[in-house]
Design goal:
With about 700 residues, the protein is mainly alpha-helical. It folds into 4 domains: about 180 residues; about 160 residues, no CATH class; about 150 residues, Rossmann fold; about 130 residues, Rossmann fold (3-Layer(aba) Sandwich). About 55% of the residues lie in helices and about 5% in strands. The chain contains 31 helices and 10 strands. The strands form 3 sheets. The chain has a 4-stranded parallel beta sheet with strand order 4-3-5-6, sandwiched between helices. It has a 4-stranded parallel beta sheet with strand order 8-7-9-10, with helices on both faces. A two-stranded antiparallel ribbon has the order 1-2. Strand 7, helix 28 and strand 8 form a beta-alpha-beta unit. Helix 4 runs antiparallel to helix 6 and helix 27 packs across helix 28. The radius of gyration is 29 Å and the shape is globular. The termini are far apart. The structure holds iron/sulfur cluster (2 copies). One iron/sulfur cluster (SF4) binds next to helix 19 and helix 20. This is Fe-S oxidoreductase. InterPro entries: 4Fe4S_Fe-S-bd (IPR017896), 4Fe4S_Fe_S_CS (IPR017900), Cys_rich_dom (IPR004017), HdrC_iron-sulfur_subunit (IPR051460), Helical_ferredxn (IPR009051). One of its GO terms (cellular component) is plasma membrane. Pfam families: CCG, Fer4_9.
């Protein structure tokens, strides 16, 4: 039986390997893992063995922690079981023990403890699943869309592993074949229950229990390799080959056959442009498919899913996985073999990956705000945004199929270097509203300037965001920080183009900016827009632009800490802070904006329920700022509804796009009489300058 189960498991493992290899190569993943062995080892210890992400969800995380460790520790019980089986077969006395440690009471205790804890874990899982059943909660259940039958089967199989273990060990104590003299407290309790049955019955139960224990494990092994519990084996690999610190931050450059795509030479007929078919996915993408546990944590945090849009990051992964499995014979066949495949497989293989009748509906693809909540929450490091961006790239660059409104933004970026199509000369107009000089880079950075202040398109051209720009400039001026701006020489970083999938326009803008920055000799940059910040800090290095980049909240918090900025005038207001996704989740800047507010006298802060790494998006990221939101509730309205539950005097944030999105939703609420007239959304820099200068509260 062992040989059959192992053969079936090996055949399935080989099938999965061949299927993944039918995808695109990803040499950069292997190279990174090799070059960062220390970081990868730490990730294995923290993510896999320490279950860091799972433990953020206390009840289910703790349950999973014990069940996962049971898999490791109970391997020793299986060594004992096989040893007893073989030794019993040879000598007639199955009193095998593991050499050196096999009679140690601590090991006996550990085995029983972890099995009992796993049993409690199973009860917790069952309760969690029952309480969160999609049958009662519908879309609100994180298990909505998951394969529920398989999950219950696995819980039952783990239960079978545990009760058969205690049966065989309890009986073994009574027959004298048990290796431990103490410590195995549950086995001893079971032995006490079985003892009255007599020696013969205990001997029979020991044999039956042993065979059942091994048999259950072998059946379970085959089930695991054919179910979502495949993650038991693939999760450590997926963590090993994932991006560090995670799949947020930089969008990845485009690759074809594992090589970076050079747009000067790339040929859409021979090169892979994003993902147009499932086989354009890299083997790492396939590993993501195999590793999804269907836990639905990503889905529960997704702003699109939570506002009744069709996108679920979980289903995005599962739909691709199911499609890949269905057409696996096609993917693994040679050209000549494909002709002989069944009609249904060939028909499915021809199904578009994205399309009205495709595997992924366009409304799913275009609903994503790139907020990173899915990536942040996924306990097995699945990189949803990479999947989404690759599909968008194909749709935009090959199919020219994307929401038409975004086309205007793309044209404006190409022609004017900003999404609104305004003249570049307008980029410096905000400076005229200040009562001090702001040096502008001509060819080179002024010698005494420490920072280049990257103003960003919104910061230079959008009225509400301009207030932040002026506040930051004033604060730097007060603190004595020397800075300069590029003015008309600054162009959009390319973030909206890249997040839409138009890598070509991103590349064009990025190269232009990098040339400007490098020619000017820029070393340090401060940016107010988290999207610019993310692109400059994390994505420009991909194209040779290496700078020390800080967000304005980081620099201002530092200046306050150093005593170079001293907020004095009390602001007697209750303020709730909204974490911008590209500042928080994508770049882990959570503390500094809060530190600044904490230093302003009189400010009373209250967190929204969804904050910090679980912060809820404003709806603008992923180029959604330039698309209509036609499906479900507006994301910015959902966020403002949440902000209103804290009854704030003001909502603060640290991103020009959040400022606009939340501001729009607040205006609608005011018009509907659902928010007080004085409520406004402001950047934390505006709060700080107000306290430092003793200015009155801004009027809406
Ligand atoms: S990035 Fe945000 S919007 Fe996109 S799928 Fe993930 S959670 Fe949903
Ligand atoms: S993608 Fe990750 S978070 Fe989402 S269901 Fe799968 S394992 Fe869970």
């Amino acid at each position: 039986m062992t040989a059959v189960a192992v053969a079936l498991a090996a055949r399935r493992a080989l099938w999965l390997y061949r299927l993944a290899m039918a995808g695109q190569p990803a040499p950069e993943r292997v190279a990174y893992a090799k070059d960062n062995a220390g970081a990868e080892l730490k990730a294995q210890l923290v993510e896999v063995f320490g279950q860091r992400k799972l433990l953020k969800w206390t009840a289910s995380g703790t349950a999973h922690f014990f069940v996962m460790w049971a898999f490791f520790i109970l391997l020793t019980v299986y060594i004992e079981a096989y040893g007893a089986l073989i030794q019993g077969g040879i000598t007639g006395t199955p009193d095998f023990h593991i050499p050196l440690i096999g009679t140690w009471a601590v090991l006996g205790f550990l085995q029983d403890f972890i099995a009992a804890a796993a049993l409690l874990g199973l009860v917790a899982f069952a309760v969690i699943r029952a309480k969160n059943s999609p049958k009662t909660l519908g879309r609100d259940s994180r298990f909505s869309g998951s394969h529920l039958g398989g999950a219950w089967l696995v819980l039952i199989m783990i239960f079978n592993v545990i009760w058969t273990m205690f049966l065989y060990r309890g009986a073994a104590i009574n027959t004298g074949a048990f290796p431990y003299e103490g410590g195995a407290f549950v086995s001893e309790a079971t032995a006490a229950l079985l003892r009255p049955l007599g020696a013969g019955a205990n001997q029979a139960l020991e044999h039956v229990g042993l065979l059942l224990h091994i048999g259950v494990m072998l059946i379970f092994l085959v089930i695991v390799l054919n179910s979502k519990h495949l993650h038991i084996f693939t999760a450590p690999l997926n963590v090993l080959f994932s991006r560090r610190p995670d799949g947020n931050g930089a969008a990845q450059p485009m690759r074809s056959a594992g090589k970076l795509l050079d747009f000067e030479e790339a040929d859409p007929d021979t090169d892979v442009f994003g993902r147009g078919k499932i086989e354009d996915t890299t083997w790492k993408g396939f590993l993501d498919f195999y590793t999804c546990t269907e836990c639905g944590r990503c889905q529960s945090q997704c702003p699109a899913w939570n506002t009744d849009k069709p996108l679920s990051p979980k289903m995005l992964i599962l739909d691709q996985r199911d499609h890949a499995f269905k057409i696996a014979p096609y993917l693994m066949a040679s050209e000549s073999e494909r002709e002989n495949l069944p009609e249904d497989v060939l028909a499915l293989a021809g199904k578009p990956l994205v399309g009205e009748d495709g595997v992924i509906h366009p409304d799913v693809l275009w609903s994503c705000t790139n907020c990173g909540a899915c990536v942040e929450q996924c306990p097995v490091d699945i990189e949803h945004i990479d999947h989404i961006l690759d599909m968008r790239r194909y749709q935009v660059m090959i199919e020219s199929s994307f929401p038409s409104e975004a086309g205007v933004m793309l044209k404006n970026l190409e022609n004017k270097g900003n999404p609104w199509g305004m003249s570049e000369m307008k980029r410096a107009e905000w400076i005229e509203e200040l009562d001090f000089e702001v040096p502008m880079v001509e060819d080179k950075m002024p010698e005494d300037a420490e920072y280049l202040f990257w103003v960003g398109c919104a910061g230079a051209l959008e009225d509400r965001a301009k207030k932040t720009t002026k506040a930051v400039a004033e604060l730097l001026h007060i603190a004595g920080v020397k800075f300069a701006v590029l003015g008309p020489m600054e162009a959009c970083t390319g973030d909206p183009a890249r997040r839409l999938g138009m890598e070509f326009v991103f590349s064009m803008l990025a190269q232009q900016n990098i040339e400007t920055l490098n020619d000017a000799g820029v070393k340090k940059i401060v940016a107010t827009c988290p999207h610019c910040f993310n692109t400059l800090a994390n994505e420009y290095p991909q194209l040779g632009g290496q700078y020390e980049v800080v967000h304005h909240t980081q620099l201002l918090a530092h200046l306050v800490e150093e005593g170079k900025l001293t907020p004095i005038t009390p602001i007697d207001e209750k303020i709730t802070y909204h974490d911008p996704c590209f500042l928080g989740r994508h770049n882990k800047v959570y503390a500094q904006p809060r530190d600044i507010m904490a230093k302003v006298p009189g400010v009373r802060t209250q967190e929204m329920h969804r904050c910090k790494d679980r912060g809820f998006c404003c709806g603008a990221g992923g180029a959604r700022m330039w698309m209509e939101e036609r499906i479900g509730k507006r994301i910015n309205t959902e966020r403002v509804d949440e902000a209103l539950t804290t009854d704030p005097d003001r909502v603060s944030t640290a991103c020009p796009f959040c400022l606009v999105m939340l501001g729009d939703a607040i205006s609608e609420k005011k018009n509907a009489g659902e928010a007080k007239e004085s409520l406004e959304v402001v950047d934390v820099a505006q709060l700080l300058i107000r306290s430092i200068k003793g200015e009155p509260a801004p009027t809406p």
